[in-house]
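Entry:
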Amino acid sequence: MLRTSFLCALLTAGIALGDNPSWPQFRGTNGAGVAESSKLPLEWGPDHNIAWSVDVPGSGWSSPIVWQDRIYLTTAVPDKPEEAPKTGLYFGGERKDAPEIKYDWRVLCLSAVDGKTLWSKSVKVGLPTKGKHIKNTYASETPATDGKRVYAYFAQAGVFAFTMDGEPLWKKEIGDYKTKLEWGSGSSPITDGSQVYVQCDNDEKSFMIALDAESGRENWRSDRDEQTNWSTPFLWEAGGRSELVTAGKNKARSYDPATGKLLWELGGMSSIVVTTPIANDKYCFVSSGYVMDSKNRPIFAVKPGSSGDLTLKEKDESSGSVAWLQRLGGAYMPTPIVYDGVIYVLYDRGLFGCFDANTGKVIYSKKRLPNGGNYTASPWAYRGHIFCLAEDGQTHVVKAGPDFKVVGVNPPLDEKLFMATPAIAGDSLLIRGSSKLYSIRDQAAKK
């Protein structure tokens, strides 16, 4: 299948690249958020294990992506100062009117070796047509790559494809739409090397779209009975077929990536959905956890090969298609991570818990990170540890396993706000702050 071939190509690239295996989309290969290098850093700080840092123009909460020795990221550069946000969850942050600020939406390519800008391409210059939350940006969608092309999506501008060297190939306008409370957009594109998939959920006209990766031609579009969601779609290879799994307020849904045909749907989600589906070798896990939903923050474990309406009855916690349900397990903003048979969940206000991925059994429930703050970025894992980046920049390091053990807290870097999910470039960790990109590397490991 196309996706199987693409994943094999990624693994081959990783072997060939040595210190620079690829991190091709939001949360890396297969959206897993997991890396394997034994040289990745456990400790860092403003004056410790920083290989380089560079200023990034404009604003954007898109994550970096990596292919070989190159880093790609997006930004929206304003022509005048923007209103500064504060950390945490709060009401009153929406800005319903589009600002009188002209933006330059850009795709950047940096060297993973030293952070030097290799190319920078503008895709649109103009005034935004929609407002956004003060904590959001006009470049919060993470780009994706298949090693042949780089694909960037901006809700205010469209979908754009470039060669790896920055030559424009095609663009596709898919419309900009009103979002819930004008909080703005955040769902990232993904690709299987043949098509580019965009989940465009909004308060006007929601749909899932598949674009031909080479030409930008629209191959299929599936209308969705949804309002605004911020979840990124997920490609799942299981049960002898490929599935495009999406999370939404009304329902989680799975589509045939080749045709857009609906395979299954599952009701019972939270009233606001941000997190992205994930999977292990047995199940696909779909979750949501809006903080104001006191009785419904679910994690569902869906079995491969399912079809039709999988919605559970009110008191059921499993079925022939749903292996298990944790009704209050889901997080609001950070996407959970599956690591060595365990689902780890980082909750927005500094709580941390985990579940057995095969059974849904609670291993430990909502332990407080010491001096933990507010969390938007999703956790990541390597070297037997889970990493949790707070909005203020401190990173808690939690030992993987059945016992809750925080083994370190890395201090904030030289910025005040961190909301982008980090990425990994071989043996280096990439953290994006409000104005800089940091490459963090264990200086002792390379000796």
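The mean pLDDT is 94.
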